[in-house]
Write a structure and sequence with these properties.
Blueprint: E1 5-9, H1 15-24, E2 28-32, H2 40-44, E3 48-49, H3 53-58, E4 62-65, H4 70-78, H5 83-86, E5 92-95, H6 101-113, E6 117-120, E7 123-124, H7 126-132, E8 135-141, H8 143-153, E9 157-164, H9 168-196, H10 201-208, H11 216-226, H12 236-252, H13 258-272, H14 283-290
Parallel strand pairs: 1-2, 1-4, 2-3, 4-5, 5-6, 8-9
Antiparallel strand pairs: 6-8, 7-8
Helix pairs in contact: 1-7, 9-11, 9-12, 9-13, 9-14, 10-11, 12-13, 13-14
Amino acid sequence: MKDKVIGWIGTGLMGFPMVGHLLKAGYKVNVHNRTKSKADELIAQGCTWYDTPAALAADSDVVVTIIGFPKDVEECYFGPAGIFRGLKTGTILIDMTTTKPSLAVRISEQAVGAGAEFIDAPVSGGQLGAINGNLSIMIGGKKGTVDRVTPLFEAFGKNMVYQGKAGAGQHAKMCNQITIAGTLIGVCEALIYGLKAGLDLNTLLESISKGAAGCWSLDVLAPKVVKKDYSPGFSVDNFVKDLRIALEEAESMQLSLPGLALVKQLYLSVQAMGGGSYGNQALYLALEKLSNLDQH
């Protein structure tokens, strides 16, 4: 795989460290980002800059996208300067953005028609997972194509699981986000209860994180809440986007997910408070306000 030129679009909180791992592993990487300054350091490390997704695709063997919202993904692939405008036959496209499963299917169909291949491979683990190179990757697409790019995933991922055909990776990521939403509201309510009961929250976490309640949110996000650290490893705005997609997909399958709907409404309150750029642990702020414990 290292004989292939990797084109990478998206050098934000997640993409930046992921490209860094590819460079350390010896890959040649072309880059594009909506804001060029966010790629300057990677360019200094040896990446080649391209002004448009189309230009990057024309000079890359594998094109990876990890950008933002579904509309951004759609523009990146289908826009007037998008990937499909410069795509070469035989190119492997990989979208690692968390986006709509239906959009993944659409990109896959377009790729096949253009003589290319497509994989949807959203990730979990946040910025910390990207920095540490231990992301969990949920993968949809043709199994043979997935096997070919697995060495690339190994540069920044530790848990790579094939889910099925195109779109299956995105459906798996929705399950991941639904689980996070449910566990995080429990974590935040536990902290509010503990505070009201007069417990030392650090001591509380030391106890409950090692028992049946143990989870990633307790280990990583709860200590941030205790420190009043709402810096983003994954932003509220992005999480709301994911929860909206999950609820839309659930509705299309005639599913009722009341817990997820509640968490989304609480996150809308955080956005209304001006916390859209905060980390998703800022769910605590909405619950704190409801409990009249606002001490921030």
